[in-house]
Amino acid sequence: MAESTTKTGQPLDRAVLESVLRRRLFYTPSFEIYGGERGLFDYGPPGCALQANVVDLWRKHFVLEEDMLEVDCTMLTPEAILKTSGHVDKFADWMCKDPKSGEIFRADHLVEQVLEARLKADKDARGQTVEVDEAKEAKKKKKIKDTKIEKLDDALVQEYEETLAKIDNYGGDELAELIKKYNIKGPTTGAELEPPRAFNLMFQTQIGPSADKPNGYLRPETAQGQFLNFQKLLEFNQQSMPFASASIGKSFRNEISPRSGLLRVREFLMAEIEHFVDPEGGKKHPRFEDVKDTKLSLLNRKTQLAGSTKPDTLTIGDAVSSGLVDNETLGYFLVRIQDFLLKLGVDQTKLRFRQHMANEMAHYAADCWDAELFTTYGWIECVGCADRSAYDLTVHKEKTGAPLVVRETRAQPLIIEEFEVDLERKKLGPKFRKDAKAVEAAVDALSQDLREKLALELEKSGKIEIETPGVGSGRTELEKDVIKIEKRKRTEYIREYTPNVIEPSFGIGRILYSLMEHVFWIREGDAARGVLSFPPAVAPTKVLLVPLSGHGDFKPFIKKLTTRLRRVGVSNKVDDSSASIGKRYARNDELGTPFGITIDFQTVKDGSLTLRERDSTKQVRASEDDIITAVKALVDGEETWEDVVKRMPAFEGQDLE
Amino acid sequence: MAESTTKTGQPLDRAVLESVLRRRLFYTPSFEIYGGERGLFDYGPPGCALQANVVDLWRKHFVLEEDMLEVDCTMLTPEAILKTSGHVDKFADWMCKDPKSGEIFRADHLVEQVLEARLKADKDARGQTVEVDEAKEAKKKKKIKDTKIEKLDDALVQEYEETLAKIDNYGGDELAELIKKYNIKGPTTGAELEPPRAFNLMFQTQIGPSADKPNGYLRPETAQGQFLNFQKLLEFNQQSMPFASASIGKSFRNEISPRSGLLRVREFLMAEIEHFVDPEGGKKHPRFEDVKDTKLSLLNRKTQLAGSTKPDTLTIGDAVSSGLVDNETLGYFLVRIQDFLLKLGVDQTKLRFRQHMANEMAHYAADCWDAELFTTYGWIECVGCADRSAYDLTVHKEKTGAPLVVRETRAQPLIIEEFEVDLERKKLGPKFRKDAKAVEAAVDALSQDLREKLALELEKSGKIEIETPGVGSGRTELEKDVIKIEKRKRTEYIREYTPNVIEPSFGIGRILYSLMEHVFWIREGDAARGVLSFPPAVAPTKVLLVPLSGHGDFKPFIKKLTTRLRRVGVSNKVDDSSASIGKRYARNDELGTPFGITIDFQTVKDGSLTLRERDSTKQVRASEDDIITAVKALVDGEETWEDVVKRMPAFEGQDLE
Question: Is A225 touching B (CB cutoff 8 A)?
């Protein structure tokens, strides 16, 4: 899919959509009257309502339906926590400064842009058609200076392509080498760039009045707060496993060079789930059976390695049983993520799950799939679903000593039979003096196999020799008055383990933006007009009330309707401006309001109203009671517009333009 | 009211309540396994659900019912904005360091604590009973060293009391003077304190990679984002006034020494409304008529100055017409705030509105009332309702030049008849040279009265003399070839004005905590057990489902009930643990779950269920359909428990302990 199209098959013109979204105040650059600040956006009333509806749906779909334990943790985070989690040392991008202009670039993005531009120039020179990858094109806003049409050596083309495939994995030294090797210069000045340096993406701050330097950060994810509360949550859950915690809140990343509108911002709303599961027994999920026949579009690692982007469509049952998706729990969540996105109105043909490449994942991750949505910026990661293994709980446990573990009584006590070693410490000390500890450590480290052999030897000859690096000759003799080796049985009644974590992590802003692209289309007519076809459940406002004119007779009807609709939980707005009904509806099509109710002179006579549906612009006419019942059923998803049209008389009276 | 009591008249023991709230994970200190960080708390599942319900109710009560324009602005805020708003220079507290221990104190709190302790010691010495102000007692966790029981001079007592009355208004120099004058030392060491210095309460940070020093802050309030978007919001509202914007989100204050649990924290959820109103015409409100007979408990400025804390109960109609509350819009919001708090379950006898003292308000504020809730910490400010006048829009307009104004066509064009002055600039320059500008300014500054007089004079004698300070002798003669003064008419069709802002500002965390105190009580019995009597609308979970035992026959009923309740929007939890039904209900009384449904062997026979109400512990028995209908009506507030008891048969079968 090279180009984004609307649901009516028109090419999607991002500039037109953005103009609608800004004019209707879905979002707007923050601090615009002060010149703005890159990577920061405010949501206006419709964006805010859309966001609240999506969050509400998320809470119902995940937290309530799956009985998750929602927590709300602070964004301010002391340094120690993020040091342990690895963020202080590793949560960085490489940046490069152009000394002439002072411009700062993300080093990997710059290398990528230049090499891609050269490859494109090469293809042009060879007369090949270029298949545009919109995602990458979008990054290249700046004019790259050295892209004259020029043929490259075949070997160099291959080298460039290999470099690009691995671009996410280079460190600072490697990026510096690439910049030098490929003679990459400041794109606007042509100057030699300063060497890349690491830039930590967390915002630093000082907590409390006594700190004399930054001692904390704004969290880069909501996950850590959930891990730190693991013990309390397990207790709250009455020690019962598995369970999931969930959190909805803002996180922060100090992007080096934010672009791409709402897709790469410095402050963003996340919704994250940490599902804690026993690592033993294959991470089964009790409800996997219910979802196993659901089909997903899966772009696996192997396909990507082969240079293709064609996903396979298969059931999650097959994907898990073949080992493509690592385990049931991960698979279950992939389905639930897809269900959620489709509920919001995401276009299923623009949704795929892409598996992370081995070198793309954190070292501790077992498997990771991103739900990606196709937009005019290309395929965009909107939800990550990773198996974080036991990493986080383990590092925090090691650092603090807090028992971030599950202790459960074994159904069957575990009987363990092992060779155990007893040392006669009273004799060991005087005999080996300063080396006594080293000898003891060497004995403790003996494997079960060795112990078995040594036990026989000790029995036979009354003494053994063990390796003791750094002590005497490197080998030490022990006689049976100092050491005893025996096979013994012991019984363990309690099992203690660190749970693994499956983490579905949602970028709400990215989902909102991608959704707006998916539901946008242009209604052809006298004037082409934008429509945002949000499903009723997420639409910012559900019903627009439109009196035919400002006539006083309409007012009591409006007031009554507003109150009645609000009472049944249906948000509504009145537009009693002097614009024509057609213009007022057009304005609301841009706002994505799915239904409109008109109050006209017939209403004053017999109380009947007309109900209009946004996408078809068809209208029906019925009594107030019937219209309210229909609207409620439509908004709750219990009826479709087709149902309503079948049972209510159509209306084609008003001149809408 | 000297002491806080529960609704059943028991003294409220904060330690008991806090232990319930922490054990049930309503909230918990953040980062506890790392030793914690003062002033930061996480909400666990019930706290999180309570918060979400309160926010949802707030959104319905204000944003939807009043058709407000909700916005979601970023927390990260560039320095320039907060410089203009005055926060960079003035949003500070005074702190004092003990050089011996390194402890840091908030200077005003320290002075307050010491003087109060001395006054208390004096009263003890005089043998008077001391009426304890819990709020202030709570601040004194540290042992104050110099509070031996000692009688003070009568004059000194009065001086201390006067100082305490004004404690909120002292600057650094004055605090330093008080510390010296009253010989106040480090409370734990007795050491001489370092002089107070200002500590800005905003968290600083660096936005973007190129900043070499902090260039931004975390917002201390959500208000500024709303002001900056004023123009866009007015446009969105189709230029129609008045209107309100609203915002729900976290704000941050780097408290010097946070204590008092959830009441003084460094990161907190706010909900703020900025109602923009025309300053002309008395700030009337179109719906004031609907609320004018509502009674409020008002503690006015005059009463406070007289040293009393006894509020008056009067209707808001009377309060506004007598001028006590400045205007209708402010009055309207006080009523709406009270309505909201009562909906949440706040105890009306523990709610008052306190007017700010003249010196307590920002210099630009016209009037300000705080909704205060009574708790074991004393009266706590939970909602502020201020008339911020045109201050914020004006300063941002002046700084940026953005037209943060309303321009409206006058219904009647305004005809203005004024004396206007024309100067012959070509002659003025050569004549007055370097003084020409000063002369021109002096002419421009002439009042209408003077202009009228001078016009006559000029007519009569052909020349006039005006005052020109700093030019020549201080008076300058102008002849009629240089100056002309005429009465002229002009017509203004457009009126341009800067709206005033009425700002109701809610501290959600403070409201949650106070509410939990208001609804907490102890059920006497074999074991005294805590109950949180949240109204159904805000209760974290609405219904607990309790199977009599783990018997397999109960499972399908539980599953069906869960699904049916969820479908009608009623959140529910299952407790199928092995504890007795009584214990399980006790646990949920602590969680504030208003209703319980028991599934027993009768259910398996005839499908009937029992429904239990938390506060009365009474039960009824009916069919599944009837129970679900009743629960839905109870949760939606359409029926009370009394209604249900009247029409359904009581049930007293199970042994609940």
Answer: yes
CB B642 within 8 A of CB B578: no
The pLDDT confidence band at residue B271, using thresholds 50, 70 and 90, is very high
Whether B524 has a pLDDT exceeding 50, the answer reads yes
CATH topology of domain A541-647: Rossmann fold (3.40.50)
* Extents of the domains making up chain A: 14-75+219-392+501-508, 92-200, 411-497, 541-647
pLDDT by residue (tens digit) across A79-138? 999 999 999 999 999 999 999 998 899 999 999 989 999 988 888 888 775 555 544 554
- Mean of per-residue pLDDT scores for chain B: 91
Residue A33, min C-alpha distance to chain B (Å): 6
Instruction: Tell me which chain B residues have a C-beta less than 8 angstroms from the C-beta of A210.
Output: 102, 104
Confidence of residue A210 (pLDDT cuts 50, 70, 90): confident
DSSP A577: S
Residue of B32, B42, B404 to mutate for A, most A C-beta atoms under 10 A: B42
For the record, the structure tokens of B43 come out as 């909400």
Contact A71 B231 (CB under 8 A): no
Per CB-CB distance under 8 Å, the chain A contacts of B67 are 573
List all residues of chain B from 25 to 64 with a beta carbon under 8 Å from chain A.
25, 28, 30-34, 37-38, 40-45, 47-49, 51-52, 59, 64
Q: Check pLDDT > 80 for residue B416.
A: yes
Interfacial B residues in 71-130 facing A (CB < 8 Å): 71-78, 80-81, 95, 102, 104
* pLDDT at residue number B138: 47
CATH code, A14-75+219-392+501-508:
3.30.930.10
B-interface mutation test, from A50, A73, A269, most B Cβ less than 10 A away: A73
User: Domain spanning B411-497: which CATH class is it, in words?
Assistant: alpha beta
Q: What is the mean pLDDT of residues A134-159?
A: 64
- For chain A, the distance separating the N- and C-terminal CA atoms, rounded to the nearest angstrom, is 37
Question: Concatenated DSSP letters for A275-330?
Answer: EEE-STTTT--TTHHHHTT-EEEEE-HHHHHTT---PEEEEHHHHHHTTSS--HHH
Over residues A266-283, mean pLDDT: 96
CATH of B92-200, one of 3.40.50.720, 3.30.40.230, 2.60.120.200, 3.40.50.1240: 3.30.40.230
Q: Which residues of A touch B31 (CB under 8 A)?
A: 77-78, 81, 228
Chain B residues whose CB is inside 8 A of the A264 CB are none
Contact between A329 and A348 under an 8 Å Cβ cutoff? The reply is: no
How would you classify the pairing of strands B572-574 and B619-623? unpaired
Task: Return all residues near A34 (Cβ < 8 A) that are at least 6 apart.
Answer: B78, B80, B81, B228, B399, B400
- pLDDT tier at B49 (50, 70, 90 boundaries)? very high
